[in-house]
Specification:
Length: about 475
């Protein structure tokens, strides 16, 4: 666990028996190298909080955005793309995993100050759960010559997930050494699947559907440490990442008229405003005919890897060995569904926050990539444990549609958001959220989320300080 609390029940005052700590030796050693870190912060009364963010949310947003751009392109030019857009109307020369690795390196480059120190932390103790991205010599956050073009909404989102050092402006308990440090930790679910959607491509005579990427190859590295079959792949010294970024930018630039405002990923204008929020997941049981079920079944997962509540009872027919009479015997077979397949089986059930969750901000939650915590019935952390250890007193519960097992998943939200980022030429300038972000960036460079959350955080800080004595 990255953050933990130990309670002693026989105490008359809980605060006298609360042992609070976080991180590991690597993260502790790294604090002195954090940007603008002050020596006095080593004595802060607040243990650092680590917030876990799923890289696949960024990958899926970009992939689905591109898919919708090609759909808008085919709709706009039914007789074929222009010469400028011709290269974008073809299948990519790389695999879905190779594109994901390129996204990984862009994120590692942006968060290179913090990821190296938090690379061994986990949000829970799942058998096949979330793993932080490693910063080895082959895959650390090297500064790139160019970066991926992405929607401004996504860029602003990522900028506000950078390291946060928050000073509680409370008069009664204020002390300049008591900074609350919130550190982002990027990673992936080890069982999450690469997505290769069908896009519109021009075959010279007509628009046809084709997989966006080529088929996977055995040399595709994993996301965590960029190894493949035990062989270390040096993605920092390979020119494939640069070629992928260049090809992506050329293709997106050709179709940019169909998109909301977009720009290269990067920047450091945010101060971790979105790190004050957490999206809490529960894993759903997917239908047997779905891709997630079939893939999980093929992976050969075993019962000992999961809790009993992740086992689905499925009746099967077994015939008696005697030739006569033929008797059919019904017996249950346990078909296992992976509980940590990432966003494809994760349903948001609540949001928690250090600050008040305003009505204005509630409307943006589905659009945002936020830190997350998986909730399981008998595996720490519980919702209350997480809220206590992360000081998140505010909570918003998500209403669920019990008649649909997929509509409420995070993957469905991402796909829906990406579609809105590619509205087509006629509507490319009408996306309200993107236009507000663009205007605020041009006027004060404070960022949409920074402006939206700044006052909320300041307003809620005094109450929080009174509730948590130093």
């Amino acid at each position: 666990m990255a953050t933990f609390s130990a309670f002693v029940t026989n105490g008359t005052r809980v605060s006298r028996f609360l042992k609070y700590g976080s991180g590991d030796s690597t993260s502790a050693f790294n604090f002195g190298a954090l940007p603008n870190f002050k020596m006095e912060w080593y004595k802060t009364a607040y243990a650092p909080i680590y917030k876990f963010i799923d890289l696949q949310e960024v990958v899926l947003t970009l992939v689905y955005w591109y898919q919708n751009l090609t759909a808008q392109q085919a709709k706009q030019y039914p007789d074929g793309p222009s010469d400028l857009e011709l290269d974008s109307a073809t299948q990519k020369f790389y695999t879905a995993r190779q594109f994901g690795i390129a996204v990984r390196q862009v994120i590692m480059s942006i968060f290179n100050d913090t990821q190296s120190g938090s690379q061994f932390l986990r949000p829970s103790i799942q058998a096949n759960g979330f793993e932080a991205l490693r910063a080895g010599t082959n895959c650390f956050g090297k500064q790139l010559n160019q970066t991926l073009i992405a929607p401004t909404v996504l860029n602003e989102n990522i900028a506000n997930l950078l390291l946060s050092t928050y000073d509680f402006p409370d008069e009664k308990y204020h002390n300049k050494k008591n900074a609350q440090i919130i550190v982002p930790v990027w990673g992936v679910f080890t069982t999450s699947l690469d997505i290769n959607p069908s896009i519109q491509v021009w075959d010279g005579a007509a628009w046809v559907l084709s997989p966006m990427f080529i088929a996977p190859v055995v040399t595709d590295p994993n996301y965590v440490d960029c190894t493949a079959g035990g062989v270390v792949i040096d993605v920092n010294e390979s020119d494939l990442v640069s070629r992928i970024i260049e090809d992506w930018n050329d293709s997106v630039s050709a179709m940019i008229a169909h998109s909301v405002p977009a720009a290269p990923m990067g920047g450091s204008s945010g101060n971790g405003n979105l790190l004050y929020y957490t999206r809490l997941y529960q894993y759903i049981t997917v239908d047997e005919s779905s891709d997630a079920f079939i893939t999980s079944k093929k992976r050969g997962l075993y019962k000992k890897m999961f809790n009993n509540d992740r086992v689905v009872n499925k009746p099967v027919t077994r015939k008696n060995s005697k030739k006569t009479p033929q008797i059919e015997i019904e017996s249950p077979q346990q078909v296992l569904l992976a509980p940590g397949d990432g966003v494809s089986t994760a349903r948001p059930v609540s949001y928690t926050s250090i600050a008040q969750i305003s009505d204005t901000f509630k409307q943006t939650l589905n659009y945002l990539i936020l830190p997350f915590i998986p909730l399981e019935d008998d595996t720490p952390p519980t919702q209350n444990q997480w809220r206590t250890s992360s000081l998140e007193a505010k909570i918003m519960v998500v209403e669920q549609d019990e008649n649909s097992s997929q509509a409420g998943t995070r993957a469905a939200q991402i796909a829906n958001n990406a579609a809105k980022m590619a509205p087509g030429i006629a509507a490319s300038g009408t996306d309200t959220m993107a236009n507000v972000i663009e205007a605020l960036n041009a006027q004060n460079k404070g960022g949409f989320f920074g402006s939206l959350l700044g006052g909320v955080l300041r307003a809620g800080a005094t109450a929080l300080g009174e509730a948590i004595p130093i």
